Amino acid sequence: MDFQELSKIYHQPFFSLLKQARAVHEDHWEKEEVQLCTLLSIKTGGCSEDCSYCAQSARYSSGVEAEKLLGLDCVIERAQAARDGGSTRFCMGAAWKGVRGGTKRFEDVLEIVREVSKLGMEVCVTLGELGAEEAEQLKEAGVTAYNHNLDTSPEHYPKIVSTHTFQDRLNTIRHVQDAGMSVCCGGILGLGETVDDRLRMLEVISNFNPQPESVPINSLMPMPGTPLAESDPVTVFDVVRMIATVRVAVPKAKVRLSAGRTHFSDEAQALCFFAGANSVFYGDKLLTAGNPAMQADLDLLEKLDLSPQAPNPSMEAPVSTPDVPLEPVLGA
Ligand code: SAM
Ligand code: DTB
Ligand code: SF4
C-alpha cells in the first residue's frame, strides 16, 4: 500500500477504522486466538550501537550492565519453561550490532538454536545485522523467524540511530527473506516521530515481498539514561489506530502488541485486540524492561474469550508474489 492509501485508512473516523480493521481481521483469522511469545535476552547490554531508545547501548548510563552470551543449558531451561507456560514462540534477543559467520559467538548461537528448535515452538532470533550466509546458517539451524524492526520512517531513522542506516536494516531483511525465514518487522511509537513517519514506516513494511509474517508494534518504554528517557508517552488511541492500520495493510501478519503493555489498562489492550492485534510477548520481562505478569495476561484473555494460539512449529515462511519487485522500496 502506498502512503496516500495508508493515510486515508488511518485518518478516517475512529469507529470506521475499527470497523474496517475488524472486518479485515475476521476475513483472515478465523479463530479468536492470541499467540503467546516468550522473549529471552541471551546477550544483554554493552551494544556498540547508539539507538537512542535502547537501554542496552554501551553509550548510555542506563544501569543495564553488559553480560556474556548465556550458556546453552540456561537457555534450554528457559525455553522449556516458556513452552510449559503455554508459549508457542521463543524469541531470543542479543544486544549486538550484528553477527559474523565463523566467529565463536555465532557458532554458539547456532548451537542454541539447534537445541531450542527441538522443543516444538517457533524459534525467533533478533541478533542485529546479518549477511546472506549467516541468514542461511540460521535457517539451517532451525530459526523460523528473524526479528529486525525498521522502528520508524526512513526520514526519522537518522535522528534516532547514527551507527547504522535504514538501508542496512533493509539489506538484512532481504537476506532473511532470501534464506527462507519469516520476517518479523515492525517499529516503535513514541520516538518523537509524526503520524506521517509511522505511516511511511508502514508503507515500506507493507511493500515487502513477501509481506512480513509478523509486525510488532512497540510503544516506547522510556529508559533512564537514554536520550529518549523523558519522552512523552504515546496515547492508547494512537496505538489502536496504528494497529488497525497495520491489520488492514498487512492482513495475514500476526500483529504483535509488544513493548509498553505495562502502561496500558486491560480495556486499552482489549481495544488493541479488537483492532487486529493477535500476539503478545508473554512473561514478566521483555529484554530488560517489564511486562505484565503471566497470570494477568491469561486472566485478560479469558475475560475477552480469547484463547492462546495452538503451536505451529513447522510454520513455513510466506512466499513472494510474482511480478512485484523483490527489493524493499525506499522512497517509492
Ligand atoms: N540488537 C538487535 C536489533 O537492534 O535489531 C535486537 C534487539 S533490539 C533491543 C529489538 C527491538 O526492541 C528494537 O528494534 C526496538 O524495536 C525494540 N526496543 C528496544 N528498546 C525499546 C524500548 N525502550 N521501548 C520499546 N521498544 C524497544
Ligand atoms: C520487538 O519488536 N520488541 C521486543 C522484541 N521485538 C525483541 C523487544 C522489546 C524491548 C523492550 C525494551 C527492553 O526490554 O529493554
Ligand atoms: Fe543495540 Fe539493538 Fe539496542 Fe540498537 S536496539 S542499541 S542494535 S541492542
What's the helix count?
11
User: What name does the CATH topology carry?
Assistant: TIM Barrel
- Please state the structural category: alpha/beta
Provide the list of bound ligands, each named once.
Answer: S-adenosylmethionine, 6-(5-methyl-2-OXO-imidazolidin-4-yl)-hexanoic acid, iron/sulfur cluster
Give the rounded overall mean pLDDT.
95
**Could you give me the name of the CATH homologous superfamily?**
Aldolase class I
Give the CATH architecture: Alpha-Beta Barrel
Rg estimate, integer Å: 18 Å
Q: How many separate domains make up the residues?
A: 1
Helix content: 25-40%
Distance between the termini: 11 Å
Describe this structure in words.
The chain is of the alpha/beta class. The protein has a single domain (3-304), classed as TIM Barrel, CATH 3.20.20.70. It is 36% helix and 14% strand. It is built from 11 helices and 10 strands. The protein has helices spanning 3-10, 14-28, 72-84, 104-116, 132-141, 157-160, 166-178, 195-206, 236-249, 266-274, 294-303, and strands at 33-43, 89-94, 122-126, 145-147, 182-184, 187-189, 214-219, 254-257, 279-281, 307-308. Strands 1, 2, 3, 4, 5, 6, 7, 8, 9 and 10 form a 10-stranded parallel sheet that branches. Helix 8 (195-206) links the parallel strand 6 and strand 7 (214-219). Helix 1 (3-10) packs across helix 8. It is globular. 48% of the residues are buried. The model has no long low-confidence stretch (mean pLDDT 95). Residues 47, 49, 51, 54, 56-57, 95, 97, 128 line the site of iron/sulfur cluster.
